[in-house]
Design goal:
Blueprint lengths: L1 H24 L6 E17 L9 E13 L4 E23 L2 E24 L3 E21 L4 E2 L12 E14 L4 E12 L9 E18 L1
Antiparallel strand pairs: 1-2, 1-9, 2-3, 3-4, 4-5, 5-6, 5-7, 7-8, 8-9
Length: 223
């Protein structure tokens, strides 16, 4: 009996030693660190701060490139390099054009080079659910004003002039990634861009709801 107990006491530590050795030799799974993609979509944009004027959402588009660096299977840093239409619409407003008082609908278009840089958190295998949040920075490429006949006009109204070249704010949203193969995926994202900077001396701030679609490619070797 005593011999059996001694053998058992010797055997139990050997089990724990074997488990510890197995943990030490377990290799961390390798992943592709870099991901490149093409993206495009549509947006609905408006501005905050037009207190005395009723503005409505303007329909626009966005497209560009995506670069992603994966820290592991769940966390990555994602950046877009986009061309994006922003602005707003007003169905009826009194304004002056070429010294003549008139009224009607106006569409203000602000075209930006937009750079969102956000933390990307994803879960899943064949279908990944992800959450994105971070800052965005925008550079104004041009500003154009159109009347209800879609003619470009220059109007004398403080809300439609003297736009800042720089915009920045916060971006957040949800998405789905469909894994098509080991290196290719198709993504659908919904983002909200909340401007923090006043884009002219009237205190206007951009706001955009983006629906983005993209094809992404994992590149390089697993590390």
């Amino acid at each position: 009996m005593m011999k059996k107990i001694l053998l058992l006491l010797l055997f139990i530590p050997s089990i724990f030693l074997a488990q510890n050795e197995e943990k030490k030799t377990k290799v961390k799974p390798k992943i592709y660190k870099w991901e490149l993609g093409l993206n495009g979509g549509v947006n609905f944009t408006n501005v905050k701060g037009l207190d005395s004027i009723n503005s409505v959402n303007k329909f626009g588009k966005l497209y560009g490139l995506t670069v992603t660096y994966h820290f592991n299977r769940f966390f990555s840093l994602k950046g877009d390099f986009d061309f994006e239409n922003k602005g707003w619409k007003i169905d009826d407003i009194n304004y002056n054009i070429n010294g003549v008082d008139t009224s009607g609908g106006i569409t203000q278009v602000l075209n930006y080079f937009d750079l969102p840089a956000f933390m990307h958190i994803g879960f899943g295998k064949k279908i990944k659910f992800d959450f994105n949040f971070g800052p965005y920075f925008g550079y104004l490429l041009n500003a154009k004003t159109f009347n209800s006949d879609n003619q470009e006009v220059v109007i004398d109204h403080p809300s439609f002039r003297d736009f800042s070249n720089i915009d920045y704010g916060f971006i957040y949203g949800l998405g789905l990634d469909f894994i098509l193969s080991e290196r290719v995926s198709f993504g659908i994202d919904f983002f909200v861009e909340e401007g923090l900077k006043e884009i002219n001396n009237q205190g206007l701030k951009n706001r955009s709801l983006d629906f983005d679609f993209g094809i992404n490619f994992l590149v390089g070797k697993k590390k």
